[in-house]
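The records we work with from here on pair a chain with its fold. Here is one such record, which you should read through line by line:
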Amino acid sequence: MAETEIISSSENNEQFFEGVEKLIEIWFTPAKNADLRKITRQQWENVLKIVRCEIISFTQSELVDAYVLSESSMFVSRRRWILKTCGTTTPLRCVRAVLSLARDVAGHSRVHNVFYSRREFARPAAQLQPHDNFDSEVKLLDSFFGDGRAYIMGPEKDCWYLYTLLPLEGTVDALEKEHCAANELLEPDQTIEILMSDLDPAVMEIFTRQYSANAAQATRESGIDKIIPGMVIDDFLFDPCGYSMNGVAKDGCYMTIHITPEPACSYVSFESNVPVSCYEEVITRVLQAFRPNKFVLTVFATPDSPGAEAARQLKKFPALGTYSLLDGQHCRFAGYSLQYALYCKFPS
């Protein structure tokens, strides 16, 4: 996280950083020879200037390019673009530029679907427009895509916001026919997010320069390298504190973790599209690594993906280890199901 994003509180001399991220994901309809990875690094850097962040490091597999940013991460594959940024960044301001590059450079002229989501900010008033309120975010997204749907899930202080776009053809069946004509089928897709707050101070200390000499030490001592084995890890430890990592696998799977360790505002996010039919083991590893007091869990999955079964299983979990379920919702969208849950640690 960039030092310019840290806010000092004169009341108690504690430093604050908004760890909650804004996450936007755009899928494009398959087109012959179209590939978002044709967009150059310099062009991405120009886009990220609009967002108010920059590229720190880069890694890739055959199927996905992964960028660690000064505020979180960006992933680029053939027809999917993901941008996840924390602090007071402005990711929605860059959407128009991304759509132009997708059309003019990558050969993608049609949007298949859009997902924009975030937790409630700790300090929403500190955000820059349009991110100071969800209504403004939705208004801007609608100016780009027109046919979006906005949802709010969970209790007020821990709510989770979602904007998603129905497929332009109106039905999944119509899109499947279109994709078959292009010699491509709809890809099974699933994404799990675990958004954690109020974390164990002893764990958070690992992600400071005072404790860890480098990112590799923090990755190893926290157990991050064992959450999803087989990932090629690109990690970064900020000075004086803070941590980001991307992991990529040969099959196109990714994982990303971002950590704000300051005691007054500790926050950790975990995200992956790893295709498993049961997320319980992954969730357990994440919770054991970071030991949050509270977390939001979301699972998006297409009906034909392994993650669809995982989402159904989560509906049956009134508790996860030492955590009790405070709120849960299940929704169906065009071609996707969503499981949302809010968990809190049992009183000791």
Q: What stands out?
A: Residues 167-171, 176-184 have pLDDT under 50 and may be disordered.
